Amino acid sequence: MKVTAKAHPNIALIKYFGKKDEKEVLPYNDSISITWDTFETRTTLETAKAFNVFLNGHVASIEDREKIKTFLTYFTNDVSHTVVSSKNNFPTAAGLASSASAFAALSVAANRYFNCNFSEKNLEAITRKGSGSAIRSLYGGVNRFNRNGYVTRIDASLEEYRLLVVLISDHAKAVSSRKAMKHVVETSPLHKAFIDTANEDSDALEKALLSKDFHTVGRLSEKSALSLHGSMLAANPPIHYLSDAAFRVMDEIVKLRRENREVYFTMDAGPNIKVLTTKKDVRLVANHLKAQGFNVLPALKPSKEGAHIL
Ligand code: 2P0
């Protein structure tokens, strides 16, 4: 028996950061993301003599193995003859949403492999327990992860959208999102402000996406990313993922905007910068950043493809 599923990562424009219920993975605030093409996780479940987990071709750490084993207990009470192999075609744990595509692919694969046939909503409730952001990679396009723990799909037209990843480091981050989130909730005086802003801005972002108001989409995305990093910097002790190079990229983007380019930045719990721009401006923006010496990956397009069995 062998089942393989594929999922793409999503990048949040309004960020999720903090759980009001850690067991159920219920977020304090709504978040909204776009699922992007090209980057993908492929996860295979197959029958073997003993349970094992391979991540990107290597035997997983004990911590990852236990996390996956616990996650699979939502689908079965016997994992003893299952081998999980998961591969990303992009850097893992570097703030590029690898846990989102990984748990979305694993959920969909396990649902089929163990013959669970869970409904969409049941699968959402399970998937978010693997990783909150993974719930948004179950589907393509724009997805809103609501405070109630479920997803609303937003039917916005995304043909003009492009995303550039400026790779500052592809090393796995020192502090995981999950740990950073808990620490920020417990110690940052700015976390409450982050939540309030995110909830208000989610409605505004949804409207802007539906009315094709790219300027407002970009402005709200930058605001959410900066507010996220502000709340992390105000934690005790502070958490900082961004280096000097990251701030230089942000400066270049602000400069390009002064030249009337449609371009905005967003950052997650990692060192890399994601640049939200348009089909019209993407080439110029990429060339400008490359000319400044930055490592810019080929542009991504929004993907309509949700997590699915291959
Ligand atoms: C997001 N991040 O909305 C935010 C922005 C990182 C910064 O969701 O603990 O790996 O597994 O629910 O989903 C990354 O956190 O955290 C994340 P858990 P997850 O994309």
Topology:
Elements: E1 2-7, E2 10-14, E3 19-21, E4 26-27, E5 31-35, E6 41-47, E7 52-55, E8 58-59, H1 62-72, E9 82-88, H2 98-113, H3 120-130, E10 142-145, E11 151-154, E12 161-166, H4 177-187, H5 191-210, H6 214-233, H7 244-258, E13 263-267, E14 273-278, H8 282-291, E15 308-309
Parallel strand pairs: 7-9
Antiparallel strand pairs: 1-6, 1-15, 2-5, 3-4, 5-10, 6-9, 7-8, 10-11, 12-14, 13-14
The structure holds ligand 2P0.
Ligand 2P0 binds at residues 12, 15-17, 25, 31, 99, 131-133, 177-178, 181, 268-269.
Characterization of the model:
It is globular, with a radius of gyration of 19 Å. The chain is 37% helix and 22% strand. The chain has a six-stranded mixed sheet. Strands 2-5-10-11 form a four-stranded antiparallel sheet. The chain has helices at 62-72, 98-113, 120-130, 177-187, 191-210, 214-233, 244-258, 282-291, and strands at 2-7, 10-14, 19-21, 26-27, 31-35, 41-47, 52-55, 58-59, 82-88, 142-145, 151-154, 161-166, 263-267, 273-278, 308-309. It contains eight helices and 15 strands. It is an alpha+beta fold and 310 residues long. The two termini are 14 Å apart. The longest helix is centred in the middle third of the chain and has 20 residues, at 191-210. The protein folds into two domains: 2-156, Ribosomal Protein S5, domain 2 (2-Layer Sandwich), CATH 3.30.230.10; 161-291, GHMP kinase, C-terminal domain (Alpha-Beta Plaits), CATH 3.30.70.890. A hairpin with a 5-residue loop joins strand 10 and strand 11 (151-154). It binds ligand 2P0. Residues 12, 15-17, 25, 31, 99, 131-133, 177-178, 181, 268-269 line the site of ligand 2P0.
